[in-house]
Structure formats: structure tokens, C-alpha cells
Design a protein that fits this description.
By secondary structure, this protein is an alpha/beta fold. Helices cover about 35% and strands about 25% of the residues. The chain is built from 14 helices and 16 strands.
Length: about 475
């Protein structure tokens, strides 16, 4: 006679085993991630501590080295066993004294990065409008032996359809057309001054480049309509070859560890303030996402590399070095995606750069995130820009991912300026970056099939052209395709 108690126990054991092996659904996983991060997010608190105890994070400075060590130790604290410095040599630039006189009147001014070690020039100011190629082409000799004046953005009265250039690209054009100096007018009210590199290569430029406030600049532009102005620019800076370090924490993949997903943000900042927005909110969100992977026991199929890049502000130096090493070591094809957080926050959607094969992947992922919180609007775009750490990866055809942010636009007025401090940071927005960013990164790293693959050289070229990046890449000596 069969024992009914025995079979009842056997059924219970089988049932229990089935429950143990039951896979967690995406919704359950996202809910678990969401709850943990909302309860334990540390991005805001670690950024606060860093800004208070370190200050700015200029590459090559003592502060920069302290920031590298700080983030290395945090990765270790969060449980990462494989954390390493990736050391590279850079010619680190640091500002010294600067003065600007216009018609013998002192003007509030700040030096732009990679200006000469020493400069003392006097010349007539020529208003070059937006400082685009077309502005110079209309009168090629206009600034020869003179000082160019250019607005940092596109002037409101300009013709429609113009594409703006980076300050470094506007400086390169001034040099190309023979200027002996350039004055860039900021676009932010109340005399805010902007710094940032004026070099497209990360090397010293041959002419002094400075920025003045919007009000001074607009008054100068108006006066130039009726009379000449003579500027005297004097400056002294320093530049030395030093060593800087990317900080890389690695989470090995489970089934296809040779395939890598890179999540990065630049740790370095300019030195006028503490770089809380640029790029504290991005880089410290990367660290918080790394924490969330460990805290939630997330082990995707692919290897994830969390990277704190240094040298971004001085010419993408850290990310260029990482890519160069991957090419040298024949591992560039292992990098399947690069996700970049630069001044990113409070995501409402995603931007996927590259030649997409499966846009639905991102739309479905966004819909799943939206079920956790309708703050996330599931917007989507497929475009690419320059001048952040995704660029070296993108030029090698690596698909890129970033978030569509929903931040208070007023904080960007302090971009690269002396007001970029921690008081601008919104704790909830940083937490949202960690919440949604963790879901995005895990889903990408654990996908059965990625939504895009590495583009070949010709496809990459066409993608650059499609995104109106060819002219900018040519000016920056980064256009690698022969015509």
C-alpha cells in the first residue's frame, strides 16, 4: 500500500524546489531595484562629501588625485574586488593671472583652458558675430593681426538653421584666419564667466583666449558698430606633463564575460568651483549605480565596466586613452556598448546613438521603467553629439547610450563657472538617475541580443555625416576618413 504521507511530503518538496528555481520577472526585478535605491541611494551624499572635502577636481592637480583615490576607495567599499587605476600621461594645464583692458578700461575676464603659458597682446577687436566659418569666409582677412570677438552660442538675430560650434572650434577658426587673440562672450545673465578648453587637441594654443560676461560683451558689440576698440590681454599660466588616472571597477559577466558594457562619467572638473553639476551629478550617479548592482546582487551576462574618466575637460584625455589601449590590445571589439552620464539627471527617456537594429528594445525597456514610475516618460532619440567621453568610442563605431534628462535649465547657467557648487544639486534627481540608470544598464548588459552592433568604418562615417558632425570633427582633427 502506498503511503499517502510520503507522497504528500514528496509533492511539497517538489513544489518548494520549483519555487526556489522560479525566475524573477522583469517587473519584480525592477520593483526590487527601485525600492532598494530609493531607500539606500548614496550618490547625493557622496557628492556632498567630495565637494566639501576635496573641492574642484582639475586633472593634474592635487585635488584631482584626491578625487581619484576617493572614488577608488568607494568602489572597494561597495564590494568590488576588481578595481584599478588606469594611468596615463597628460600635459595638464592650470590657470594663472589674467587681465583684459578694452580702451584702457579693466574688464572682468577669465582665461580659457590651454591658452599660452605667457601672453601679452594688444590689438584691435573685430566682431565676428557667431564665430562660425561663414562669418570668417565673408571677409577672410578681417581678423588677421587682430583680436576676434565671438558669441559663445548663436546670436538671437542670426539666420535660421545655423549649427553652433564648440568654443574650442571657434578658437581654432580664429587661429586659422590669423587672429592674435580671441574674446568669447558668455550667454548667461548677471556677468557669469565661463571657462573650459579652447583647444581642439588638448595641446596649448598659440593665442590667448578669454571669456567675458554677457553684459560686457553685448555692450562691446554695440559700441563696435560706431567706433574702434583696442584690447590688451595679458596672462600667465602653467602646463606640465603629469600622470592622471581613470578609475575602473569591473563586474564580471556570467555567461559571456568577454563582451563588455562600459558605463562612464568624467570625474574631473574645472577649478572655478566644485564641479557639482559638471560632472558631479553624472560621475557620482555612476558610482551609485555600481553600488546598486552590488546591493541588489545583479550579475548580468556581460561584463560591466564602471569608469571614472579623468581629463575630459582638457580634451577627452582619459576616454581617448582607454579606447587607444583597447585598440592596441585588440579588445575594442569586446566593447559592445558605451553608456555615458555627463551632466545627466532625472531621466525621462533614452538616447541611443549608432545604427540601431532594434529600436523596440529601448521602447519596451522604457515602458517597463515607466511602470515603476510615470516620472519616466519613455522619450527616445537616435542622435549623437561630440565633446564628451562617448566620442572616442563612437568614432570607433561602438554604439552609445545616454539619458534624456529633465533638469532645471537654470543650473546650466553655472556650467564651467564659479557658481557650479553643490547647492545646485537636487537629491531626488540624482536618485532617479540611479534608479532608472540601473534598470537600463542591467537590461543592456543582460540582453539576449543587443539592439545595435559595432558599426564598420564606412557606416560610422555616414552616421557622423547624418548627425552634422563632419565639420566639427575636421576642425578638431578627428575626421579620420579620406575624402
Amino acid at each position: 500500500m502506498k503511503n499517502p504521507i510520503f507522497f504528500a511530503l514528496l509533492a511539497l518538496i517538489i513544489s518548494s524546489c520549483g519555487e526556489t528555481k522560479k525566475e524573477e520577472s522583469q517587473a519584480e526585478l525592477f520593483a526590487r531595484i527601485d525600492s532598494e535605491i530609493k531607500a539606500n541611494s548614496k550618490g547625493y551624499s557622496t557628492l556632498k562629501e567630495a565637494t566639501e572635502t576635496i573641492g574642484h577636481r582639475l586633472t593634474g592637480s592635487t585635488n584631482g588625485a584626491k578625487a581619484e583615490e576617493y572614488t577608488y576607495n568607494i568602489f572597494k567599499e561597495y564590494g568590488f574586488e576588481d578595481v584599478a587605476y588606469q594611468t596615463f600621461e597628460v600635459e595638464a594645464w592650470a590657470r594663472g593671472d589674467v587681465s583684459l583692458q578694452i580702451n584702457d578700461e579693466d574688464i572682468k575676464v577669465v582665461t580659457l583652458g590651454h591658452s599660452p603659458i605667457e601672453a601679452n597682446v594688444t590689438g584691435e577687436i573685430v566682431d565676428m558675430g557667431n564665430g562660425l566659418e561663414a562669418d570668417y569666409a565673408a571677409n577672410p582677412d578681417a581678423v588677421k593681426g587682430k583680436i576676434a570677438l565671438a558669441y559663445i552660442n548663436i546670436l538671437p538675430e542670426s539666420a535660421e538653421g545655423l549649427t553652433n560650434l564648440h568654443r574650442s572650434e571657434k578658437t581654432a577658426l580664429a587661429i586659422k584666419y590669423g587672429a592674435i587673440g580671441i574674446i568669447i562672450v558668455n550667454q548667461v545673465d548677471n556677468g557669469v564667466l565661463l571657462t573650459g578648453t579652447a583647444s581642439v587637441t588638448g595641446e596649448l594654443i598659440p593665442i590667448p583666449a578669454v571669456c567675458i560676461g554677457k553684459e560686457d560683451g553685448m555692450a562691446l558689440k554695440e559700441s563696435l558698430k560706431t567706433k574702434k576698440a583696442i584690447a590688451k590681454i595679458a596672462m600667465a599660466n602653467t602646463s606640465n606633463v603629469i600622470k592622471a588616472r581613470n578609475v575602473v571597477a569591473i563586474l564580471p559577466g556570467t555567461t559571456i564575460p568577454e563582451e563588455q558594457i562600459v558605463l562612464g562619467g568624467h570625474l574631473d572638473s574645472w577649478d572655478l568651483a566644485t564641479g557639482a553639476i559638471d560632472n558631479g551629478i553624472g560621475s557620482f550617479a555612476v558610482i551609485d549605480i555600481a553600488r546598486a548592482f552590488k546591493a541588489n546582487n545583479l550579475h548580468p551576462k556581460r561584463t560591466v565596466k564602471f569608469v571614472m574618466f579623468m581629463g575630459e575637460e582638457q580634451g577627452l584625455l582619459g576616454s581617448k586613452f582607454l579606447v587607444e589601449q583597447a585598440i592596441k590590445n585588440n579588445t575594442i571589439d569586446n566593447i559592445k556598448y558605451m553608456m555615458n552620464l555627463d551632466m545627466s539627471g532625472n531621466p525621462i527617456g533614452m538616447n541611443a546613438g549608432g545604427k540601431l537594429e532594434d529600436e523596440k528594445f529601448f521602447m519596451d525597456l522604457g515602458a517597463a521603467i515607466q511602470k515603476q514610475d510615470t516620472i519616466y516618460q519613455n522619450t527616445f532619440s537616435n542622435k549623437s553629439g561630440l565633446h564628451s567621453d562617448h566620442q572616442p568610442f563612437m568614432l570607433e563605431g561602438v554604439p552609445i547610450l545616454s539619458v534624456n534628462s529633465n533638469l532645471d535649465r537654470s543650473i546650466y547657467g553655472c556650467y564651467h563657472s564659479d557658481c557650479d557648487d553643490f547647492n545646485l544639486v537636487n537629491e531626488g534627481h540624482m536618485t532617479n538617475t540611479a534608479r532608472f540608470g540601473t534598470m537600463m544598464l542591467y537590461s543592456l548588459a543582460n540582453a539576449d541580443k543587443l539592439p545595435a552592433t559595432k558599426m564598420d568604418s564606412e557606416t560610422t562615417k555616414e552616421f557622423m555625416i547624418k548627425n552634422n558632425l563632419k565639420e566639427k570633427l575636421i576642425i578638431g582633427n578627428d575626421w579620420k576618413w579620406e575624402e
